[in-house]
Amino acid sequence: MQPVINPKHPGLSVRVVDDGFATYIWGSDFSFEVSAYGAAQVGRSVSQWPVTPIAPYRKCYGIDPEEFSSFRDAPDSEIFMAYLDDQPVGHLVVSTNWNGFAHIDELAVHAPARRHGVAKALLDVAHFWSRKKKLPGIMLETQNNNLGACRLYERCGYVLGGIDHLRYRGIDRHTAEVALFWYRLFDDPLGTAISGPTAPRLVP
């Protein structure tokens, strides 16, 4: 796959992963601030969810560059890296799930590079990859303490399809963290064209 250039951010591009992936992972900050928990509700906008503010803290999920090593060069999965002015700033791991949907296994952006369209560009590439494989849609998971991610997915056309209050109780039986499953369903699952102003532009 050729590099994908984001027309709104000319210095931003997305490419298939290269040998610098591990170095980029170990040198990046993927933490985010948690300041509230949302009471997610299917069918209601994130802005309408009841919110419980908490004392802010930084949260970071450990990312192991070897965890998805088998996804490279596999026919049903891919790893993409985002670059801002030729510096690696984000990545996306996508695969074909057992239920036929594309599954975003991991999406992360280096903290200093956020608010530059990086996550949106990676989601656009996941859309392109999924449509090219003629899959019916995309699914992913986030949590109710990452409201910024929830708002992003909603803006990108994803809808909340499931809520799991027990998923993280094995780690902490008293946790308030809830798993949220988001889906983007394609109107024409057999089509390959991507329409609309946010379609990625492939360059030679």
TrEMBL record:
Keyword Acyltransferase among record annotations: yes
UniProt keywords, alphabetically: Acyltransferase, Transferase
Pfam families associated with the record: Acetyltransf_1 (PF00583)
Domain N-acetyltransferase: 41-187
Lineage: superkingdom: Bacteria
SUPFAM superfamilies assigned: Acyl-CoA N-acyltransferases (Nat) (SSF55729)
Protein name according to UniProt: GNAT family N-acetyltransferase
Species lineage: Bacteria, Pseudomonadati, Pseudomonadota, Gammaproteobacteria, Pseudomonadales
